[in-house]
Amino acid sequence: MDNYTSDSSDGESCNRIIDLAYLLRNPESVDKTLSEYFENDSKKFQDIERIILHHNELNIVPHNLCRFINMKVLDLSNNGLTSFPDIFRYCQLTNLILKNNRLRNETLSKDFTECYTLRELNLGGNDIVQFPEQIFSFPNLKFLYLGGNAIKNISKDVWKLKQLQVFSLGGNQITEVPVTVGLLKNLQALVLCDNEIEILPANIANLHNLRSLLLHKNRLRTLPPEIIALKNLSELSLRDNPLVVRFVSDITHQAASLLELSARALKMYNINVQPGDIPQTLLHYLESAHTCLNPHCEGVYFDNRVEHIKFVDFCGKYRIPLLQYLCSPKCASTSTEEIVRPHRSYLMKKVLLG
């Protein structure tokens, strides 16, 4: 994010910025100052690209803001805003900073005009409890900050934000990460710290550009083993999670159903089944087989599986438990205290546990 300052020595740049930060002004006072750019048929307002209004006393958005049709950057952070209108009807912003206000889901404009230019949106530190669906009006977002709210769920439609590079959701009340997060192929930083997450989806391994994954202060007991495939991941923060404490889980196993036992036999003995031999639903069931992760086992499983913990040494110092699924308890005969070290090219540069 750009550093906004009013002491630039570039005269042309100064003419493009209105900086009223830290002046503790109310909406009427700000509106009066902004109106000067329109007096006597002045065209000065057309030159303005950045308006900086953070740390004032604005409970509403000043009316004259919408008149700056060439505005690209708007910073209204650290005010007392309780509502935000559809300003995108009037200008095509690239950066909108609304952090540390009092915005709620119902006080945001119900719909935002679709804006393809917006690259950064910061709604952190507000009173938002649901993932704002209005965000999907900005398909080219690269930086999205929603931390410090009370959001409970991440929208399953988050995959629509295909250009996201930074996705920050720390300090909310999120319990589950949808598999659609794994479709954000351009993501470089994913911040999920200080939530109530108990498990991560396995397809997080699809985030091949991910460099930073912050998961501290959650309820994670294990990580999906697929996380080892994140070759570009250089920072993994895990402190204040149950998985940091070394443990061995009791293996619980229920007998497989006759359906699963039959299907396993067909797969293990390579019995060929053609369409028409059995109902189509059973053919689909056979296609859903999973291979046991024990390299010495050639078995498969369907619905009935055994949870197993394997400790992995990510960077030569920390032992992290990864969750595996096996076909039977005998496949977990190796001690869960066995430490596995991934190939050196997969090792992470920084694992933060404390």
TrEMBL record:
<keyword id="KW-0433">Leucine-rich repeat</keyword>
<dbReference type="InterPro" id="IPR055414">
    <property type="entry name" value="LRR_R13L4/SHOC2-like"/>
</dbReference>
<keyword id="KW-0677">Repeat</keyword>
<dbReference type="Pfam" id="PF00560">
    <property type="entry name" value="LRR_1"/>
</dbReference>
<dbReference type="Pfam" id="PF23598">
    <property type="entry name" value="LRR_14"/>
</dbReference>
<dbReference type="InterPro" id="IPR050216">
    <property type="entry name" value="LRR_domain-containing"/>
</dbReference>
<dbReference type="InterPro" id="IPR032675">
    <property type="entry name" value="LRR_dom_sf"/>
</dbReference>
<dbReference type="GO" id="GO:0005737">
    <property type="term" value="C:cytoplasm"/>
</dbReference>
<dbReference type="InterPro" id="IPR001611">
    <property type="entry name" value="Leu-rich_rpt"/>
</dbReference>
<dbReference type="InterPro" id="IPR003591">
    <property type="entry name" value="Leu-rich_rpt_typical-subtyp"/>
</dbReference>
<feature type="domain" description="Disease resistance R13L4/SHOC-2-like LRR">
    <location>
        <begin position="137"/>
        <end position="241"/>
    </location>
</feature>
<protein>
    <recommendedName>
        <fullName>Disease resistance R13L4/SHOC-2-like LRR domain-containing protein</fullName>
    </recommendedName>
</protein>
